[in-house]
Amino acid sequence: MAFNDGWNRRTFLGALGAMAGMVFGKGKTFAFSPAAGGAAAPVSGFGASGNVYEELGVTTVINGQGTMTMLGGSLGRLEVEAVMALAAQHFVSIPELEVAAGKRIAEMLKLPDGYSAIVTSGAAAAMTSGLAGILTGNDPVFIEQLPDLTGMKSEVIIQKSHRNPFDHQLRATGAKLVVVESREDVKRAINPKTAMMHFTNFANADGQIKAEEWVKLAHENQILAFIDAAADTPPVSHLWDYANMGYDLIAFSGGKAIRGPQCAGILMGKKELVANALLNNSPHEDTLGRSSKVGKEEIVGMVKALELYLKEDHEALNKEWWRRLDAISVQITRVPGVSTAFSVPDVANHVPHLEIFWDPRKISISPHDASHALRAGKPSIVLATSERGLFTNSFMLQPGEEKIIAEQLTQLFKAHGLAG
Ligand SMILES: *Cc1c(COP(=O)(O)O)cnc(C)c1O
Fold first, then answer.
1. Is CB count within 10 Å lower at the N or C end of the chain?
2. Which pLDDT score, from 0 to 100, does residue 348 have?
């Protein structure tokens, strides 16, 4: 539950002076409030059991699939929650806070001169507001007018293999996507209506034009370049690599591997573009981004999450992720017919993955049915399916959950084992 990231209760209580958060003990739940001088206030009514999901009748799951927004992204860090609770105690100008937080983020990441950042409600919102800012500049008439692009540029160039469900966030501005494949296509596509060239980082391997060449090509033609790098930490260096590569705007999710607030992301880039993005975003009214509200709590929580993420021992984390998958693999491959394979995607979710597959002559269950059985089990386990079996990663697992997954899989395979 809340104590899932190496914090034990004693450490937590020890640090209480400056903190706020939740503690569960002896059947009672306490919420610490800085406003109440750090005193523990018992939670009564909803939440009193310590398991809000159970109280609502919603089943929590063991997440062997990774940082899926559909499953809640990632689990928060207590220190981030504590800082968010502190933020909740005061009123503040949100635009002023955005600028200050962005400055701190740019400093922490040592972004190049002339770069700043804002906290958005996620990478998806960063895409919409970032493009909106490119289209409108700081013109209040244009800002109100979106998604009617009369008088503005109106086209975004994107490689065919880079199209994905998140480009809806670009289309929401009213801009039209112009799909290209080759360098020649790009040259032909560029015209006075071109607002920017968009790159989907996880599709880097699939497109003819790679990340570095894409930004060069854009700038040679005086076009701005945007990169969606939402799920692209680890490695941590990706947080500054694309700014150093020259991308004008870069979007990251805050609530994936960085483990910031679930409804947070970062839009970083050239100062003026970031400022214009903010003008198109909440809290400003009559804007396209007004529906992507980001609160003082998320803004401050994002700064803290980034600080903690940068300090983390990434090598140790990676080792632990491998250890968990090894543990699962060793146990389940004892069942006759079960095989496993390890892999690490080059970019996006660049963490160890384990594919699990089995000989249909020895085990008679389809990958689809196996995934459903795990989901319906107690505890409920979510793994992805692959063409030949199941697919899992371990970076969102909580301590000990790898053992549960190995045990449930072993039982499932044995239950569907064919004699002989
Ligand atoms: C998750 C993701 C997004 C959306 O990010 P949010 O932070 O959830 O808004 C956008 N693009 C890609 C490639 C993603 O993986």
1. C
2. 84
